[in-house]
Amino acid sequence: MRILLVEDDPTLSNQVRQALEEADYAVDLAVDGRDAQYRGETEPFDAAILDLGLPLVDGITVLKGWRAHGIRFPVLILTARDTWHEKVAGIDAGADDYLGKPFHMEELLARVRALIRRASGNASSVLACGTVRLDTRSGRVSVDGESIVLTSHEFKVLSYLMHHQGEIVSRSTLTEHIYAQDFDRDSNTIEVFVGRLRKKIPSELIETVRGLGYRMSGAP
Ligand code: CA
Description:
Helix content is about 40%, strand content about 20%.
């Protein structure tokens, strides 16, 4: 899952970025509104965290611009103070949730998880496919009730596929959603990660759809 973080305060952006990366999200950072506008319109994100007070273009204008362009990823806005008019303006502009500064990092992570889950139509925080369970709160993955150990990249691939069960997901889509833009990407490695995943979970759960990509499904 890939997140666009828009925050001009370097201390805060570093803290948030680190927390998100530790939770196995790929993170792209924009430090002004113009860059945020452009990235949001050109890159596929699973969610955005958007500060409202930004250089060049303010956060509300950025958000209105994204929505006017048909960009639908969920957006969590960060308001400088817990002021009601900023929240109302943000929600009117198309925000899905808001958080007043200062906030606890755990709360930010919980809200981001919930936004991504809801955007992909998953009501429960534990995603299930066949005998595989992925607990989005703890990041724990189990097969038949037994915990399994995944590398960060394996987890990212599995998490994306489990959030999008039943859909055909191409290798390039997986690449775009597990790496940030400044990362040295190689879509061939996706095959390697899927190959390793199939050794750790029942292999039939991840189907190869020839020429198109992969489909994860627990249906027989
Ligand atoms: Ca700011």
